[in-house]
Write a structure and sequence with these properties.
The complex is a heterodimer of chains A (381) and B (310).
Chain A: H1 2-17, H2 21-40, E1 53-59, H3 64-73, H4 76-79, E2 82-86, H5 90-98, E3 104-108, H6 112-117, E4 124-128, H7 133-158, H8 171-175, H9 187-202, H10 204-216, H11 218-224, H12 230-259, H13 268-293, H14 296-313, H15 334-346, H16 351-378
Parallel strand pairs in A: 1-2, 1-3
Antiparallel strand pairs in A: 3-4
Helix pairs in contact in A: 1-12, 2-9, 2-12, 9-12, 9-13, 9-14, 9-15, 10-11, 10-12, 10-13, 10-14, 12-13, 13-14, 13-15, 13-16, 15-16
Chain B: E1 3-12, E2 15-25, E3 30-34, H1 41-48, E4 56-61, E5 64-65, H2 71-75, E6 77-80, H3 92-102, H4 107-120, H5 136-148, E7 154-158, H6 166-181, E8 185-190, H7 193-199, E9 202-207, E10 210-216, H8 217-224, E11 227-234, H9 241-246, E12 251-257, E13 260-266, H10 272-281, E14 286-292, H11 296-304
Parallel strand pairs in B: 3-8, 3-9, 6-7, 7-8
Antiparallel strand pairs in B: 1-2, 1-4, 4-5, 9-10, 11-13, 11-14, 12-13
Helix pairs in contact in B: 3-4, 3-5, 4-5, 5-6, 8-11
The chains are: A mainly alpha (381), B alpha/beta (310).
Chain lengths: 381, 310
C-alpha cells in the first residue's frame, strides 16, 4: 500500500506542477470554449413560444370525473396553453381537425367516470393532427398530468385516506410544469456539459504521457527494478491521473456554474459520479492505447483523433441527430454516454437511460483496463 | 558469489543478443564488464535485474534465483541505468526520496540516508533544484544518488559516465571506489577501457553477445602479452637504421614513420641499451623511448580484431 501511495503522491505532485501548457489546454481552453460556444450559438438553443393551442372537446360522459376534468381544463394555467372548443360529436371534431381548426380532439367516453370509480382503465381519447407534433406533445403532457393526479387520488383512496382533497387547478400542473425554463438546456448549459466531457477525453493524454514515462520508459524500467510490483506501479499511476483530471473537472464545473451560471442540476453528487466514471474511462482508454502501441507519440495522436470524432458523434460541437440504426454508433462514443447520463440527471430524463449509460461506461472501463493489462503482458520484453 | 549467471541466452528475433554468458562476481569486488556498444552488456544487466526474461540459462543473486519478483533481493540491489532515469519535474531531493521510499525507507532513516546520498554525490547544496537546471554531469550524479540512498549491497552501474565532462567523470569514479570501500560490490559496465582499467579488479570482455575473456586485468593482458611495442622518437632518421634494428636480438619487426621508430619485440628479450647504441651509431639521438605494456584495449583488439570504440 505504501508503494502505491508513493507512486500516487509523486505522480500527482508532478501533474500539479505541470501548470503551463496543460492547465491552459485542460482548464482554460474548455472554459473559453463554453463561453464562446454558449454565447455564439445561443440562438439555436432557444425554445419556441408554445402559445395557445386550439383543441376540440367531446364530452359523452356525464359523471363526476368528467366534471373534474372540465374543471381541470378551465384552470388558469391550462387556459394559457389550451383553448377548449366544445364539440358535439366525434365526427364534427374530426372534421375540425381535418380543416386544421383545432390541433387535437379530446374525447371522454360515455362510461369514463364509471370506469374510473370502479378502478378500471378509462382512457382519454386524444386524436392529433400529424402536422402539429410539437403541440400534440404539449397536449398529451397536460393530459398526462391530469391522469397522474387521478392515479394519485386512487392510490390514496386505496390506502385508506378518506375523501382526499383533489384540486386539479394549479398545484398539480405546477409540479408538472410544461414551461421549458430549466428543463431544457440553454446553449451555455449544453456546452458546459459537452466541453467538460471533451476535456475529460483529452485527459486520456495524461495516461499516455504518464504511463509512457513512468511505466514503459527508462524511469518506469527503473521503478520495476525496485521492490514494487507492476500492479502497484500501475494502480498508483492510474489513481494519480484520475484524481488530476477529476480535479480539473471540478474546477471547470465550479467556474462555469458560478461565473456562467451553467445549470449542473440539483443532483450534483450524481453528476460528479458520472464525471468521475468518465475520467476513469478516459484514463483507461489512454492507458490501453499506450500499452497497445508502446509509443507515447502515436498513442497521443490516436487519442486526439478519437476525442475529436467521439465529441462530434456525441454532438459535442453542435447537436447532431443521427437517424435510425446508424444512431447506435453514438453509443460507441464515450462522450455520448457521459453527456446523455449528465443531461438526463440535470433535466430529469428517464432514470433507466441514465442507468444504461452508467452501466455502459462501467463496461467500457473494464474493457479498456483489461485490454491494457493484456497488452502490457504481451509486450516484448 | 554475489552474482552468478549460467549459460544466459537472450534472443531478439533473429539476433542473438546474449550468447551463453557465464559470469561470477564475488563479494566486495568491482567487476568490469567491458565491451563496445551493442555487445550485449545492457541486455545482460536487464536479465540480472529482472527487466528481461532470459530465453535460457539462470541468474542467481545473493545465492537466490533471480527469476520473478523477489523483494528481498531487490532491496539489496541499486541500479544506475545507462539512460538517465530521473524526473525533471521533481527536485533532486524529491527524486532521491521517491526511489528511497520505493526501496522501503521511511521516517528518520529515509531523511538521513537521502541526505547522505546527496552529500555523497556532491548535490547536497542543489537538493532543492530541479534537474532541468543541472549539467549533464550533475544529472548523472543524481542518477547515481537515486540508486544508493537505500545503501544496497550490490550496485549495478551501466555506462554511468556516458557523455559527461572529465571533472564529473572523475567524481563518479571516485564515488564508485568509495562505495566499494564502504562494502558494496559493484558491477560496472563501460565501453571506456580506461575506466575499467582504472577501477576494476576483475574484468569480463564482451563482444557480440559472448564473453570472450574473463579474469583479473593481469590475466587478460597475459593472454596477448607475447610481444611488446617499443616506440622511439629520434632527432633524425637514417634509412639504414631499420635493417640495423631488425638485426638486434629479440626484435621481430621495425617500422619508421617520420622521426619515430616502432619496434615489435618478443617480451623481455630486447636489450634497450643495445637498441640505443645502434641508434647512436647512426648519428641520431634518442629523444624519447617508451616500452608499451599490453592494455585492455590491445587485449580486445587482439581477441576481436577491432578497436573497442568501433
Amino acid at each position: 500500500m505504501r508503494q502505491i501511495f508513493t507512486i500516487f503522491y509523486y505522480t500527482l505532485l508532478r501533474n500539479l506542477r505541470d501548470t503551463g501548457e496543460t492547465v491552459l489546454q485542460m482548464v482554460v481552453f474548455p472554459i473559453v470554449l463554453i463561453f464562446i460556444l454558449g454565447n455564439a450559438l445561443g440562438g439555436t438553443f432557444e425554445q419556441p413560444q408554445i402559445g395557445v393551442s386550439e383543441i376540440g372537446y367531446v364530452r359523452l360522459d356525464q359523471g363526476p370525473v368528467a366534471d373534474y376534468f372540465e374543471e381541470f381544463l378551465a384552470g388558469d394555467e391550462i387556459a394559457k396553453l389550451l383553448n377548449v372548443n366544445q364539440v358535439d360529436s366525434r365526427q364534427q371534431g374530426l372534421e375540425m381537425l381535418e380543416d386544421r381548426e383545432i390541433v387535437a380532439l379530446v374525447e371522454l367516453g360515455e362510461d369514463f367516470s364509471q370506469r374510473v370509480m370502479e378502478g378500471k382503465t378509462s382512457p382519454i381519447l386524444v386524436t392529433t393532427h400529424p402536422a402539429s407534433p410539437f403541440r400534440a406533445m404539449v397536449i398529451e403532457n397536460i393530459l398526462e398530468s391530469f391522469i397522474q393526479g387521478g392515479n394519485t387520488l386512487q392510490a390514496l383512496t386505496s390506502m385508506g385516506v378518506e375523501q382526499p382533497e383533489f384540486v386539479f387547478a394549479g398545484g398539480i400542473i405546477e409540479d408538472k410544469s410544461i414551461s421549458t425554463t430549466g428543463l431544457t438546456p440553454r446553449a451555455i448549459d449544453y456546452y458546459g456539459v459537452t466541453m467538460m466531457v471533451m476535456m475529460v477525453m483529452y485527459g486520456a493524454l495524461y495516461a499516455t504521457s504518464g504511463m509512457s514515462s513512468s511505466y514503459l520508459a527508462t524511469i518506469g524500467q527503473r521503478i520495476k527494478t525496485t521492490p514494487v510490483r507492476a500492479a502497484q506501479q500501475y494502480i498508483g499511476l492510474v489513481l494519480a491521473n484520475v484524481l488530476t483530471v477529476f480535479g480539473q473537472v471540478v474546477v471547470i464545473m465550479a467556474f462555469s456554474g458560478l461565473v456562467f451560471q451553467v445549470n449542473w442540476g440539483d443532483n450534483l453528487p450524481l453528476v460528479l459520479l458520472i464525471a468521475l466514471l468518465m475520467v476513469v474511462l478516459a484514463i483507461g482508454l489512454g492507458t490501453m492505447m499506450v500499452m497497445l502501441v508502446q509509443d507515447e507519440r502515436r498513442a497521443s495522436s490516436i487519442i486526439s483523433t478519437i476525442t475529436v470524432i467521439s465529441t462530434f458523434i456525441a454532438g459535442g460541437y453542435f447537436r447532431v441527430n443521427i437517424p435510425g440504426v446508424a444512431g447506435l454508433i453514438q453509443y460507441l462514443s464515450p462522450n455520448y454516454l457521459a453527456q446523455t447520463a449528465i443531461f438526463n440527471t440535470v433535466y430529469s430524463g428517464p432514470p433507466q437511460q441514465t442507468i444504461i449509460m452508467i452501466a455502459a461506461m462501467l463496461g467500457a472501463i473494464i474493457i479498456t483496463f483489461g485490454i491494457a493489462m493484456v497488452a502490457e503482458r504481451r509486450a516484448i520484453r | 558469489m554475489i552474482i552468478k549467471t549460467t549459460d544466459l541466452v537472450k534472443r531478439f528475433g533473429d539476433t542473438l543478443a546474449v550468447d551463453h554468458v557465464n559470469l561470477g562476481i564475488t563479494q566486495g569486488e568491482i567487476f568490469g564488464l567491458l565491451g563496445p556498444n551493442g555487445a550485449g552488456k545492457t541486455t545482460t544487466i536487464n536479465m540480472l535485474v529482472g527487466l528481461t526474461s532470459p530465453d535460457a540459462g539462470e541468474v542467481a543473486i545473493f545465492g537466490k534465483k533471480a527469476n520473478g519478483h523477489n523483494n528481498e533481493v531487490r532491496r539489496n540491489v541499486g541500479i544506475v541505468p545507462q539512460e538517465l532515469a530521473i524526473y525533471e519535474d521533481l527536485t533532486a531531493r524529491e527524486n532521491v526520496t521517491f526511489f528511497a521510499r520505493l526501496y522501503g525507507l521511511k521516517g528518520e532513516q529515509l531523511q538521513t540516508q537521502v541526505s547522505q546520498a546527496l552529500e555523497f554525490t556532491g548535490l547536497a547544496d542543489r537538493e532543492k533544484q530541479f534537474p532541468k537546471k543541472f549539467s549533464g554531469g550533475m544529472k548523472r550524479r543524481l542518477n547515481i544518488a537515486c540508486a544508493i540512498a537505500h545503501q544496497p549491497k550490490l550496485i549495478i552501474m551501466d555506462e554511468p559516465t556516458v557523455g559527461i565532462d572529465p571533472q564529473s567523470r572523475n567524481h563518479i569514479l571516485d564515488s564508485v571506489r568509495l562505495l566499494n570501500k564502504q562494502g558494496a560490490t559493484v558491477l560496472y559496465t563501460s565501453h571506456y577501457m580506461e575506466e575499467v582499467e582504472e577501477l576494476c579488479s576483475r574484468v569480463a570482455i564482451m563482444d557480440q553477445g559472448r564473453i570472450i575473456a574473463q579474469g583479473t586485468k593481469e590475466e587478460l593482458k597475459a593472454l596477448v602479452a607475447e610481444e611488446e611495442r617499443i616506440v622511439i622518437e629520434l632527432s633524425a632518421v637514417n634509412y639504414t637504421l631499420v635493417d640495423e634494428l631488425k638485426a638486434v636480438g629479440g626484435v621481430n619487426e621495425a617500422t619508421i614513420a617520420e622521426n619515430t621508430v616502432t619496434l615489435l619485440a618478443t617480451k623481455n628479450t630486447v636489450s634497450i641499451g643495445r637498441v640505443v647504441d645502434v641508434i647512436n651509431a647512426t648519428g641520431s639521438d634518442v629523444l624519447s623511448l617508451n616500452v608499451e605494456k599490453p592494455t585492455l584495449e590491445s587485449v580486445f583488439l587482439t581477441l576481436t580484431g577491432k578497436k573497442l570504440r568501433d
